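Collaborator request, handled under Task 6.
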Amino acid sequence: MTIPTRITLARLIMSPLFVVLAIKYNSTIKLGNPDVIYLYLAMLVFALAVISDALDGYLARKLNQQSRIGSFLDPIADKTLLLSATITLTFIDCGNPLPIFYTTLILSRELIQISGAIAIGAILGDIKVKHHWTGKFSTFMQVILIYSAFIVPSETVILYLAFIGGFFTFSSAALYIYAGLSQLPEEVHASAEVI
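Structure tokens returned to the collaborator:
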């Protein structure tokens, strides 16, 4: 197993660890005696996971250790980390919960992307995905919001950040839908218009 793949697997393990630490921190808040050690550990684990995302890709290219299993696991590890953290911090209070509308947008985009990729892949046998800057900025905002749920005391600030993140989440979803549909042959578009 290559070094980048091991780092990716470590990131997969960090996702449930982050969730457990966040829940433990929330339980101490409910008892009226917040134990900040859980807060610091949760934030540290999440930071290491985010860093590992950049590190495994860099090492795979630098060491020429790109592999099919690594390419398969990397996006799964990314989605698992961000989705589990976002959902957890929406439904438990670790400072300021994330707005439900934001999490709904995130989940909707992922569902659209996955179902769209499956459908287009079934028609074409292959699908080409080009990452757009709106998607990258949406991911950046998601990371910012996850940290903000722990350390930003103002609900208004969280809400503003969620609106910004939500806008770019919606924009990236629309662009991915357009990019996916543009790959379909003319016959499919014509049959859809008839229906």
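The cover message to the collaborator said: "The first helix runs from residue 3 to 30. The chain has a mean pLDDT of 88. Please let us know whether this matches your experimental observations."
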